[in-house]
């Protein structure tokens, strides 16, 4: 037997302005909700019970602060979605509300349609996503097996706990962390663990394209909208409409495109370049940055309102030197991956080699660990990886190995450098070079040939 009568109110509207209250009640009925209204925070808290499916909460209430009401709602019903109504230009309150667990916010005056779109989405999600189980298996796992991520580092375990929760939501996520820490890797994991996992995961690197092309890449264009636009093209927001759009290096988004991104995040609507048809998107955005975006806002290089819209959930990925517990496991996984790719048996790290990896500072983070292991395994003959295989590779400067052009060296260039230096140091003695690099003389001949030194 149902615990509540079928006509029990299921949308709680909390606003002290009676006109807005009536308007919202009327519109709610129109959209298939059963509204109940309160004009004060205390009255709202009295009306709260399990039958309520969602709350629309005004920030400026006469008795209890809207934020306080939100926090009390969260205490009693942690999963109840609350949509906060805030004043114009009150981005700070909006962000505070989102951080305190509001499902979304709307700035007054707002379009009723937008409010009921959000509510419809909430209802859809709650129907589709089963409540999270006590174990670490995740919601949204009905299609793909979702192996829970693990880590030996308490910092990363906390990150993963938050990441798994965030994956189940639709909220925008900002991934922060130094270069090479795994922002792209974790963005993919969020998508894989999300209810969108069977849809597209599309990456756009903001600094990779000049402004005009980036605009067209993101939003698409109509034929003839700029020189070279010989046909119409859908942008990434259209292509990833049901999936996830990963915006890498968001700090480099040109100023001219920032308002357009803000609009699409706020209203889920946009125009193609040169287009006049308003298009809709349901994309989930994950953005990443390795610069301090807050500092960029303060310096005037990034819009504050966009920063707040992106930074709804921030997940910080610690540098490898702060999660050294993970080095051994990561190294093992990476070695397995290299062995699979090369179709060889694999390598065992000696104890001293493991200690050398642990002692290193890893300025280039996981990417550098991958490079070091790629290079070390390229030179060894056997299946054991010793300290001497790694030592020459663990002397990188803090800013990472850079070529004369200032860009990071490729693996092949690094291999060439290490080999040539050793070969010259040995007085072009092949046997000595082989011994020093821990490779066979045959490999020295091969490397001399590969690098054009023979
Ligand atoms: N937890 C992990 N397990 C296995 N591999 C990882 C992990 N984290 C990162 N990697 C690998 O490390 C490399 C660097 O990661 P990624 O490209 O995600 O870093 P990033 O933070 O996006 O770097 P950048 O800021 O330079 O774009 C990738 O090859 C990735 O697959």
TrEMBL record:
InterPro entries (UniProt xref): AAA+_ATPase, AAA_lid_NorR, CheY-like_superfamily, Homeodomain-like_sf, P-loop_NTPase, Sig_transdc_resp-reg_receiver, Sigma_54_int, Sigma_54_int_dom_ATP-bd_1
UniProt key word Phosphoprotein: yes
Residues with PTM 4-aspartylphosphate: 58
Keyword Membrane (UniProt): no
Pfam family for this entry, one: Response_reg
Keywords assigned by UniProt, alphabetized: ATP-binding, DNA-binding, Nucleotide-binding, Phosphoprotein, Transcription, Transcription regulation
Sigma-54 factor interaction domain location: 149-378
GO molecular function annotations of the record: ATP binding; DNA binding
Gene3D superfamilies xrefs: 1.10.8.60, 3.40.50.2300, Homeodomain-like, P-loop containing nucleotide triphosphate hydrolases
GO biological process, one term: phosphorelay signal transduction system
Residue ranges occupied by any Response regulatory domain in the UniProt entry: 10-123
Listed name of the protein: Sigma-54-dependent Fis family transcriptional regulator
Organism: Luteolibacter luteus
């Amino acid at each position: 037997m149902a615990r509540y009568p079928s006509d029990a109110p299921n949308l709680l509207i909390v606003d002290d302005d009676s006109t807005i209250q009536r308007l919202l009640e009327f519109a709610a009925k129109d959209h298939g909700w059963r509204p109940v209204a309160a004009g004060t925070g205390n009255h709202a808290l009295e009306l709260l019970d399990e039958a309520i499916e969602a709350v629309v909460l005004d920030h400026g209430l006469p008795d209890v602060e809207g934020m306080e009401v939100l926090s009390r709602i969260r205490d009693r019903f942690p999963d109840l979605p609350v949509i906060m109504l805030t004043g114009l230009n009150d981005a700070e309150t909006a962000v505070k509300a989102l951080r305190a667990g509001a499902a979304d916010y709307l700035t007054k005056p707002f379009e009723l349609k937008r409010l009921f779109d959000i509510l419809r989405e909430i209802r859809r999600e709650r129907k589709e996503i089963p409540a999270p189980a006590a174990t670490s298996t995740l919601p949204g796992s009905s299609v793909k097996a979702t192996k829970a991520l693990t880590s030996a580092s308490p910092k990363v375990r906390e990150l993963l706990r938050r990441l798994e929760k965030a994956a189940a939501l639709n909220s925008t996520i900002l991934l922060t962390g130094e270069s090479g820490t795994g922002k792209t890797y974790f963005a993919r994991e969020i998508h894989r663990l999300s209810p969108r996992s069977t849809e597209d995961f599309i990456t756009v690197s903001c600094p990779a394209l000049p402004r005009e092309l980036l605009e067209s890449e993101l939003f698409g264009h109509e034929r003839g909208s700029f020189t070279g636009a010989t046909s119409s093209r859908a942008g990434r927001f259209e292509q990833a409409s049901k999936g996830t759009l990963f915006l890498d290096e968001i700090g480099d988004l040109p100023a001219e495109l920032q308002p357009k991104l803000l609009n699409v995040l706020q209203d889920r609507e946009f125009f193609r370049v040169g287009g006049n048809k308003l298009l809709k998107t349901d994309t989930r955005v994950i953005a990443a940055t390795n610069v301090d975006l807050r500092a960029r806002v303060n310096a005037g290089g990034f819009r504050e309102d966009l920063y707040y819209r992106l930074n709804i959930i921030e997940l910080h990925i610690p540098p490898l030197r702060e999660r050294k517990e993970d080095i051994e496991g990561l190294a093992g996984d990476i070695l397995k991956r290299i062995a699979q790719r090369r179709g060889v048996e694999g390598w065992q790290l000696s104890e001293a080699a493991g200690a050398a990896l642990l002692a290193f500072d890893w300025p280039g983070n996981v990417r550098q660990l991958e490079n070091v292991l790629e290079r070390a395994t390229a030179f060894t003959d056997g299946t054991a990886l010793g300290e001497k295989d790694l030592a020459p590779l663990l002397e990188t400067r803090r800013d990472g190995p850079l070529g004369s052009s200032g860009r990071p060296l490729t693996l092949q260039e690094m291999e060439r450098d290490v080999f040539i230096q050793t070969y010259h140091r040995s007085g072009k003695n092949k046997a000595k070079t082989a011994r020093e690099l821990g490779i066979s003389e045959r490999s020295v001949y091969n490397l001399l040939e590969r690098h054009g030194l023979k």
